[in-house]
């Protein structure tokens, strides 16, 4: 059974299931852990994308040719302004130019001042996390200080819980029920759904399948979103992923057991080819684009495997598979797939120092910059 990769696209390494979640193991038995990891990573590789004719015609093209709006220069202005104003006072400080990757053709700064005060039109923000997140929520606190930081400026922030191991179709229905069930007292606030990893295709299926959502949702933001799926999903069986329900303290079940299938590239690309995203909603994409020095040691193996296709990957997703068609491209982050959302370095510093050693990222700065851009952009519509 392949145990190398689990919690694909946003979750937690499944080998911790073998360790039974006992944190003292990490404190006392580093040699044992190292041997286990070496064993798990020593398997013979299989093709990440097997030959198949079960796929729509595809083309890789510049973002502008795919109807994507380039918002990088303005997003950089906002991100850098937040960093300069209060980045040093928040965790995991990184200089602006180190946190953001500058690819060619990025426009010069707009010169428009950045408002860093309390929001003039607060947003209701619901976050949809990646596959398996519900299974490890008692081990990793996804209610991070990033949410508390946004609340300071008047926004309402919460996690919209979906089934950890279920398909995008199943979770789309859950998202529909949650959005339609929001209290009337929040009816005047514009609603933003923010998807991390598999949370993004869950959201995209929801807004496309249920037309009634289109009048309630103003924007969808993808952060390291598995829009085009991940070749890594072809390496693991759903039965392996289902072991996450036995993680100590887990409060999840297999659901419809379609989570992994939903992440296969052929499934996601076929879905994108057959569906048109509602134009009444504004879409934004944040892409993880780390250099090799910003990949945590535990993710190096999957990074190298994906590099057989393209070295411009975050250990779980190739950069071009993270872009929502027709969205506003906000920027590229010099961070691996876990660093942008999974708080190992803050919740479990001992584990982080040995295995998830590149996990630090200014998530509060990132969250504020995203929401300030979205608020500003929606205000101009």
Short recap of the structure:
The chain is 32% helix and 11% strand. With 381 residues, it is an alpha/beta fold.
Please provide a written account of the structure.
The chain is an alpha/beta fold. It has one domain: Rossmann fold (3-Layer(aba) Sandwich). Helices cover 32% and strands 11% of the residues. It has 15 helices and 8 strands. Strands 1, 2, 3, 4, 5, 6, 7 and 8 form an 8-stranded mixed sheet that branches. α6 links the parallel β3 and β4. α4 (72-86) crosses α15 (363-379), α6 (145-151) packs parallel to α15 (363-379) and α7 (168-180) crosses α8. The radius of gyration is 20 Å and the shape is globular.
Structural class: alpha/beta
CATH C-level = Alpha Beta
How many structurally independent domains? Answer: 1
CATH architecture: 3-Layer(aba) Sandwich
Distance between the termini: 51 Å
The global form is globular
User: How many helices in DSSP terms?
Assistant: 15
Radius of gyration, taken over Cα atoms and rounded to an integer in Å: 20 Å
Helix and strand pattern: HHHEHHEEHEHEHEHHHEHEHHH
Give the secondary structure arrangement, pairings included.
Blueprint: H1 15-18, H2 23-28, H3 30-40, E1 69-70, H4 72-86, H5 96-99, E2 100-101, E3 123-128, H6 145-151, E4 156-159, H7 168-180, E5 190-196, H8 199-209, E6 217-223, H9 238-241, H10 259-262, H11 265-274, E7 282-288, H12 300-306, E8 328-333, H13 344-347, H14 349-354, H15 363-379
Parallel strand pairs: 1-8, 3-4, 3-5, 5-6, 6-7, 7-8
Antiparallel strand pairs: 2-8
Helix pairs in contact: 4-15, 6-15, 7-8
């Amino acid at each position: 059974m392949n145990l190398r990769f689990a919690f694909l696209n946003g979750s937690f390494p499944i080998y911790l299931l073998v360790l039974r979640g006992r944190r003292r193991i990490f404190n006392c038995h580093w040699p044992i852990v190292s041997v286990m990891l070496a064993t798990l990573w020593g398997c013979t590789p299989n093709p990440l994308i097997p030959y198949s004719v079960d796929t729509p015609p595809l083309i890789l093209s510049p973002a502008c040719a795919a109807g994507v709006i380039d918002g990088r220069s303005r997003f950089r202005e906002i991100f850098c302004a937040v960093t300069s104003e209060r980045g040093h006072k928040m965790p995991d400080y990184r200089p602006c130019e180190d946190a953001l990757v500058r690819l060619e053709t990025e426009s010069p700064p707009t010169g428009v001042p950045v408002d860093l005060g309390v929001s003039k039109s607060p947003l209701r923000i619901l976050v949809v996390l990646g596959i398996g997140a519900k299974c490890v929520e008692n081990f990793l606190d996804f209610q991070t200080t990033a949410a508390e930081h946004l609340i300071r400026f008047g926004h309402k922030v919460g996690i919209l819980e979906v089934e950890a191991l279920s398909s995008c179709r199943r979770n789309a229905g859950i998202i529909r029920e949650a959005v339609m069930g929001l209290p009337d007292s929040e009816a005047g606030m514009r609603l933003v759904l923010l998807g991390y990893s598999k949370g993004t295709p869950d959201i995209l299926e929801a807004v496309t399948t249920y037309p009634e959502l289109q009048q309630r949702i103003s924007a969808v933001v993808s952060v390291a979103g598995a829009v085009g799926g991940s070749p890594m999903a072809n390496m693991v069986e759903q039965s392996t992923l289902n072991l996450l329900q036995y993680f100590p303290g887990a409060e999840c079940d297999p659901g419809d057991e379609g989570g992994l299938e939903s992440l296969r590239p052929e499934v996601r690309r076929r879905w994108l080819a057959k569906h048109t995203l509602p134009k009444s909603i504004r879409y934004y994409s944040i892409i993880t684009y780390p250099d090799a020095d910003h990949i945590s040691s535990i993710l190096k193996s999957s990074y190298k495997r994906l590099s057989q296709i393209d070295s411009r990957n975050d250990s779980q997703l190739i950069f071009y598979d993270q872009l929502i068609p027709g969205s506003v491209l906000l920027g590229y982050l010099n961070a691996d797939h876990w660093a942008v959302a999974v708080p190992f370095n803050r919740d479990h510093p001992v584990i982080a120092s040995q295995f998830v050693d590149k996990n630090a990222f200014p998530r509060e700065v990132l969250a504020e910059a995203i929401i300030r851009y979205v608020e500003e952009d929606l205000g101009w519509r």
